[in-house]
Specification:
It comes from Albidiferax ferrireducens (strain ATCC BAA-621 / DSM 15236 / T118). By secondary structure, the chain is of the alpha/beta class. Helices cover 42% and strands 19% of the residues. It is built from 12 helices and 10 strands. The radius of gyration is 19 Å and the shape is globular. It binds ligand C2E and magnesium ion (MG) (3 copies). Ligand C2E binds next to strand 2, helix 2, helix 3, strand 4 and strand 6.
């Protein structure tokens, strides 16, 4: 297995595998060495605007490659990292490296409009997150409006008022915020209305529901989410887009952005740079304009 095949393909421990206690313990121990042994790598998955299909950003997805175990899915090791208090150090590493890379691309004439970094619930509840983000932006020289943080509904529902304050201060600095996996958590519509965010990410499960069978209501939740998001003043991105039928449906319902295997898988740095360069030469990289003018 080569690294470049590892977008989401081969995983020794896949996300839907129920780990036995001893496997979990083994992985936890291996995870302790992952940072210092340089087993982490950032992958980048393009995000495109609709209907133009210009590249307007990329989501950063963490990959753990263990020399003996192979690729281990973040769906497995992120929860482990949270449970064992390692998420702080790992999250900091991701943020620093993602921002440094995006800043480097700017200087290299590969201006990616936006980079999306996942922030787990635990990280989001850490009092120092705001200070960390500010420091990383200052140190890497990445303009704040090129950074988007992806937070999950569950991170917000725990203490909505505190979450709203933190989100507000992040956005006052120009940092964008997306609510990831929307529809999988349990935030009430009232909570959602009051959240200072920029974007809703329709969870891939609701995109998967979209089929081209006539009369099949599979896209109902995706369509409703687009309408809801727009009515609340948010931009809407769909993740996990794999087919032309899904793309057509999302476009017809006014979805603002898409991300998924139909366009590109998450790619290691060099492959993503080649992708970006080709898209720049073709004139299909978006400009850095706010998508939802206030
Ligand atoms: P997520 O943030 O919702 O990321 C989207 C996931 O969907 C990624 O899985 C991505 O590779 C996958 N994906 C993208 N397009 C498609 C598609 O068309 N079809 C299908 N079937 N899947 C697609 P991945 O990379 O395995 O990451 C899983 C989860 O792990 C992420 O879900 C996120 O919650 C977490 N994660 C990944 N990297 C980080 C990180 O740096 N920090 C934190 N805190 N969490 C991370
Ligand atoms: Mg995400
Ligand atoms: Mg997601
Ligand atoms: Mg997800």
């Amino acid at each position: 297995f080569t690294k470049s095949e590892g977008g989401n393909g081969f995983c020794f421990f896949s996300s839907d595998m129920n780990l036995h206690a001893h496997e979990k313990l083994e992985l936890e121990n291996l995870l302790h060495g992952a940072l210092e042994n340089q087993q982490f790598e950032l992958y980048y998955q393009p995000q495109l605007s609709l209907p133009e299909q210009q590249v307007i950003g990329a989501e950063v997805l963490l990959r753990w490659h263990h020399p003996e175990k192979g690729f281990i899915s973040p769906a497995v090791f992120i929860p482990l990292a949270e449970a064992t208090n390692q998420i702080g150090a790992i999250g900091e590493w991701v943020l620093e490296n993602a921002c440094r890379q995006a800043s480097q691309w700017l200087r290299d004439g590969l201006p990616l409009p936006r980079i999306g970094v996942n922030v787990s619930g635990r990280q989001f509840q850490d009092k120092n997150l705001f200070t960390l983000v500010k420091r990383v932006l200052a140190e890497t020289g990445l303009p704040a409006d090129r950074l988007e943080l992806e937070i999950t509904e569950t991170a917000v529902t725990a203490s909505p008022d505190e979450a709203a304050r933190l989100l507000q201060s992040l956005r006052e600095c120009g940092i964008m915020v997306a609510l990831d996996d929307f529809g999988q958590g349990y935030s009430s519509l009232g909570q959602l209305r009051d959240l200072p965010i920029d974007r809703l990410k329709i969870d891939a499960a609701f995109v998967r529901d979209i089929t081209d069978e006539p009369g099949h209501p599979g896209g109902a939740i995706a369509a409703a989410t687009i309408g809801l998001g727009h009515n609340l003043g948010f931009s809407v991105i769909a993740e996990g887009v794999e087919t032309q039928a899904q793309l057509s449906f999302l476009m017809a319902h006014g979805c603002d952005e898409v991300q998924g295997y139909y366009f590109a898988k998450p790619m290691p740095r060099e492959q993503f740079e080649a992708f970006l360069r080709a898209r720049m030469e073709a004139g299909t990289v978006g400009r850095n304009l706010p998508l939802t003018p206030e």
